[in-house]
UniProtKB/TrEMBL annotation:
Natural source organism: Streptomyces boetiae
Protein's recorded name: M55 family metallopeptidase
């Protein structure tokens, strides 16, 4: 049995280059849903080519209702909708996942990359775990490692692939587009990117297999915002302290708790953002 979990974000999908391409409810998002579904289907096909026996796709973008179930490869199952304990990597805590794919991912807040951000589209300028700058890729890889699951595929822009070499050097990485600015990229067509993703997923399947779970250890998480009041707002989350005008920090006993606290902070902070002044 080889069980694969695909964490499907959207900013790093084929053809997606600006907020209107991935903002639920907009015409641009409707247009890009099949492009994302195509990327996912290519990964599903590749994983089965490489010997996977089951693939669960976990929606990981905004409302977490972006993929088109009716166009999904019949061999996969889809976890759709939000409010999930582990959010983008829901399912990994079952402890029986042999490999996780970060599909249509992007670089972190404050980095170069198409639609670069960390959880919140704006407001947050950096996240650091034990002093190391972390985007969603590293954060989620640290959580998966605690459950013994290796990262076996990453797709996104070329900057996302470079970032992945830092946290998952073995994993095949597919650049579906090349960064030009935060809202511009040189894109390849879905037919081309699907072929690349399928081939990479087949190679990734060979890396799948349960690892020794990373022993839990305390993690110091620091979050920097673009405005002082957001740091203040975050301190209502127990354990979160303001360490500088635009910075908060907390220590979690492990990354499982670390990511859950991070989610609480981003939820509180997003409610404290004012429309024009941030
Ligand atoms: Zn997203």
């Amino acid at each position: 049995m080889t069980r694969i979990l695909i964490s499907a974000d959207m900013e790093g999908a084929t053809g997606v280059t600006w907020p209107g391409d991935c903002l639920p409810g907009t015409p641009g998002w409707e247009r890009c849903r099949p492009l994302l579904t195509s990327d996912v289907n290519a990964a599903v096909a590749g994983f089965f080519d490489g010997g996977a026996t089951s693939v669960l796709v976990n929606e990981a973008h905004m409302t977490m209702r972006n993929l088109l179930l009716e166009q999904l490869d019949d061999r996969a199952e889809l976890l759709t909708g939000r409010h999930k304990e582990l959010s983008m990597v829901e399912g990994v805590q079952r402890g029986d996942v042999d490999g996780i794919a970060f599909l249509a991912y992007h670089t972190g807040a404050g980095e170069e990359g198409v639609l670069a951000h960390t959880y919140l589209g704006n407001s947050l300028t950096g996240v650091f775990v034990d002093g190391v700058r972390a985007g969603e890729g590293l954060l989620n890889a640290l959580v998966a490692a605690e459950f013994g699951t290796p990262v076996v595929l990453v797709t996104g822009d070329d900057r996302t692939c470079a970032d992945a070499r830092g946290y998952a050097p073995e994993a095949p990485a597919v650049a579906v587009k090349d960064y030009v600015s935060r809202y511009a990229a040189v894109c390849r067509t879905p037919a081309r990117t699907a072929a690349d993703i399928r081939a990479a997923a087949a190679r990734g399947a060979a890396l799948a297999g349960r690892r020794e779970p990373e022993p839990p250890r305390p993690r110091r998480v620091e979050i920097e915002f673009d405005a002082e009041h957001l740091a203040g707002a975050a301190t209502v989350v127990p354990g979160v302290e303001q360490t500088a005008p635009r910075r908060v920090a907390y220590t979690a006993p492990d990354m499982y708790e670390g990511i859950r606290c991070f989610k609480a902070v981003t939820t509180v902070v997003s409610a404290a953002v004012e429309e024009w002044y941030g």
